[in-house]
């Protein structure tokens, strides 16, 4: 049985009693106090093998003690408890050198497990240079689901481990990546984000790795890629599930070798960036369909983080609403107050668009309604409009999927329907044929059957077009010009 001594400091008598009983049953010797001065005296005298302390005590703050603990006894593991339960609390605990942070209320079994690991492991290096007076918080919420996110982020800030963030659209994946960068060891470097779904597929490699002058038509000068722009900082690869296979191969090579070449270049360039990837897709499903490299997945998924949907952290909605009100007021909108019934109604809404949708609704209400107090009736009207789906809404070019995306979606379904087996051979020619026939038909229709004009439109030789019309058995009808 362990004879390690645990020093416990907490102003709450009930918590002191519970911890004393649990730690004693686990075989530890326990010394308990309710004030910071006594705890510091014990530590300075060399007593105790581990400290468990609340942040706020009658005569001081644990965050003020942490630097003194680190200077006096750098190898002493410290567990910080807090009922404040904010992202900055977790960050300050990590920056102050705490071994771990536990939000109140906590699970006693988990606490005992952390104590055992802390006593068995060598002390981790602390993160220096933190801005303790940072204003505002990048992440909002005190729910249990968010506490796990805060704790994981606090641990990752001391490392350069690659992180894979998953979650539904609108859950704040880029916000989390920025928080990890802004409060991590690379905070003095650049944060560069690239959305794979927003870049034409044939330009992704140039966007990532840059290109040399003359590398392709239109490349009139050398251009830096996102890897070069992010040197010494963090590169955020959003919507990584939309990355084409050839670009995936090049990215894997960079992660394996730590260097890359520009498009059209020959000299390898070393890279020093932290990679954070994000997706709202099921990458394992894409792997099974042959649309995502398994080896790249394991390179990116070193530390997985699943962001909770807003419906799974509904307790955070009042805090989020107040946060968005403050932001909008700073931008010039008139500040509002949502009454209790309005907040309860918002808490019960499923929010399919997650935090992004909530922010949009709050801002819209602030802009459209002159009332100082927002009632449940106003919120109900806006949420009803939010869920309305007009049947006669026009389809715009921007709302339609691209041809490439439509083909990719079709192939995903094809591979999914095939299950463990593969589709019949000849897939390439079948797909090309399915795309080619409607393309030629559309060109002929647009030119009213004029094959010379259709060939010019398609960029084909006239004889080539005629051969394709015969091979594809396309019937050509020449329509008269409108009078």
UniProtKB/TrEMBL annotation:
Keyword check for Magnesium: no
PANTHER family found in the cross-reference section: DNA-BINDING TRANSCRIPTIONAL REGULATOR NTRC, TRANSCRIPTIONAL REGULATORY PROTEIN
Protein name as it appears in the record: DNA-binding transcriptional regulator NtrC
Pfam family, one: Sigma54_activat
Sequence ranges assigned to domain Response regulatory in this UniProt record: 5-119
Highest taxon, organism lineage: Bacteria
Physiological role: Member of the two-component regulatory system NtrB/NtrC, which controls expression of the nitrogen-regulated (ntr) genes in response to nitrogen limitation. Phosphorylated NtrC binds directly to DNA and stimulates the formation of open promoter-sigma54-RNA polymerase complexes.
Listed SMART domains: AAA (SM00382), REC (SM00448)
UniProt keyword annotations, A-Z: Activator, ATP-binding, Cytoplasm, DNA-binding, Nitrogen fixation, Nucleotide-binding, Phosphoprotein, Repressor, Transcription, Transcription regulation, Two-component regulatory system
Residues annotated with 4-aspartylphosphate modification: 54
Protein localization: Cytoplasm
